[in-house]
């Protein structure tokens, strides 16, 4: 799926007088904010920003279309097959890995931009406000400023703290990554056509306005380059586009890790090879996240990923014809 709203404000302004002596950048992500959620009536503030800044028609997310892989691709500039964050939850080395240091350190040669900024020295400092993977050390270097993800943390306060990092007297940031988990969460629960989803889009819009106001209040609006973007889009899935695997197979005693568009199903490690083949069963809870998209794309993607020679062996991804 193509995404997203993508706006660059004041990219070419004179940065002389910035709190940091280096050009300053703020990257803001609204999770799953699809490119066409931005319009004049639903998001007047974002729309107004798009009129005074630069707006791309879309940016193309990577596959898998999940939050952690895409945010780490934004941070590193490489695909998941290189940075190794293949999903929000991944099964390898006989266990499931969720959000963790391990998940973001499959390939220690890949270093995100906020770490490269710190390593460049000469007064460069980075900040991560809940950006996926942002608070970890890479090659031994952590961002000067970092807050781990906390859903209860008020959005306007996230903005306040992020702006305070640019103004820090001893270690002013010249790069800050700022993350908001909506409208993804609401969208998964209610779909993109629900009134609650539209309310959340307005919430994002108000937050963008608050951010703009606070930048101006602190005289940073002409000193900080602001990128507003997202990690992927989102669409509602119709019932007739869902494949119920119970109709096709009888699985039992298996581990299921992840949600759409890619799930990992493996036999429990305790089962012997023969039993693995005989007792698979599918027992996915009927939650909003566990819907399996039908579609042409699913088989295509499965085949492509499974056959890819660079998929690590630890993932146990194999292609069965
Ligand atoms: Zn996401």
UniProtKB/TrEMBL annotation:
Keywords: Signal. This is Uncharacterized protein. One of its GO terms (molecular function) is hydrolase activity. Pfam families: Phosphodiest. Residues 1-18 form the signal peptide. InterPro entries: Alkaline_phosphatase_core_sf, Phosphodiest/P_Trfase. SUPFAM superfamilies: Alkaline phosphatase-like (SSF53649). Gene3D superfamilies: Alkaline Phosphatase, subunit A. The keyword rRNA processing does not apply. The lineage of its organism: Eukaryota, Metazoa, Ecdysozoa, Arthropoda, Hexapoda. It comes from Bemisia tabaci.
């Amino acid at each position: 799926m193509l995404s997203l709203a993508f706006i660059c404000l004041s990219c070419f302004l004179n940065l002389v007088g910035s709190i940091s002596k280096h050009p300053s950048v703020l990257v803001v992500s609204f999770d799953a904010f699809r490119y066409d959620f931005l319009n004049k009536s639903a998001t007047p503030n974002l729309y107004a920003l798009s009129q005074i800044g630069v707006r791309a028609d879309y940016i193309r997310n990577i596959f898998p279309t999940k939050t952690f892989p895409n945010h780490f691709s934004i941070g590193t500039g490489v695909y998941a097959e290189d940075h190794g964050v293949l999903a929000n939850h991944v099964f390898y080395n006989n266990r499931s890995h969720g959000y963790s240091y391990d998940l973001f350190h499959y390939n220690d040669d890949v270093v995100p931009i906020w770490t490269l900024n710190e390593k460049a020295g000469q007064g460069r400092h980075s900040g991560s406000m809940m950006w996926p993977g942002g608070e970890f050390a890479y090659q031994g270097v952590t961002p000067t400023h970092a807050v781990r993800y906390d859903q209860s943390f008020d959005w306007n306060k996230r903005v306040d703290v992020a702006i305070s990092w640019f103004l820090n007297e001893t270690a002013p940031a010249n790069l800050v990554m700022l993350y908001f988990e909506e409208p993804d969460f609401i969208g998964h629960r209610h779909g993109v056509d629900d009134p609650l989803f539209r309310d959340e889009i307005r919430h994002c819009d108000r937050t963008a306005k608050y951010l703009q106001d606070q930048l101006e209040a602190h005289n940073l609006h002409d000193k900080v380059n602001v990128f507003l973007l997202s990690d992927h889009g989102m669409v509602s899935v119709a019932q007739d586009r869902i494949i119920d695997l119970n109709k096709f197979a009888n699985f039992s005693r298996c581990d299921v890790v992840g949600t759409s568009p890619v799930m990992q199903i493996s036999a429990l490690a305790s089962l012997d090879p023969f039993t693995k083949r005989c007792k698979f069963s599918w027992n996915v809870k009927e939650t909003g996240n566990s819907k399996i998209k039908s579609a042409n794309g699913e088989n295509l993607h499965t085949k492509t990923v499974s056959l890819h020679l660079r998929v690590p062996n630890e993932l146990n991804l194999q292609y069965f014809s």
